[in-house]
Amino acid sequence: MYELFVLGELSIGPKHGYELQYILKSTIGPFRQISSGTLYPLMSRLVGSGFITQRDEPQEGGRPRKRYELTEAGRQRFHELMTAPLEHGTDIGLTFQFKLNFFGYVDPRVQLDTLEQYLGYLQADRKYIAELEPQVRAKPGIPEPKRAQVLRMFSHRRCVTEAEIGWVTEEIDRLKRKPVI
């Protein structure tokens, strides 16, 4: 998932490692952070795989800064990751956000496929909640305060999921109305 982000950012243009970390932190929000201990080893693997290059830039009075640039193999890998199906069991919401962030760099068909996959995930989650909620209501042995809180949690999750379904559906409709160039 972070590989997609790094390759996507470098497809826009070369960046220093600290720039990538700053943009990533800004993208994922204030409560979910990525450490240098996660990002820099990933970038080393991407260099080793030939997806990006690393160049040291001298700094006046300090250590050289590392500047990263996408290779042609990296561009192909970015496209592979953008066209790959969203995988259940991963952090599908964050992967979707990363893909959404780079929609401007892929074909509208890839955008539509991604939106439709995410919509399917959201609809499956909505169905899961709808099936589980009556079971929690009817199950004996759940203390009433606990039952009430679980049902409130389902209510919150249903509201968030419905809002996301509405937004994704609007995006799908917008893309389908967009004239093909």
UniProtKB/TrEMBL annotation:
Transcription regulator PadR N-terminal domain residues: 6-80
InterPro entries found in the cross-reference section: Metal_resp_DNA-bind_regulator (IPR052509), Tscrpt_reg_PadR_N (IPR005149), WH-like_DNA-bd_sf (IPR036388), WH_DNA-bd_sf (IPR036390)
Q: What is this protein called?
A: PadR-like family transcriptional regulator
| Organism listed in the record | Paenibacillus mucilaginosus 3016
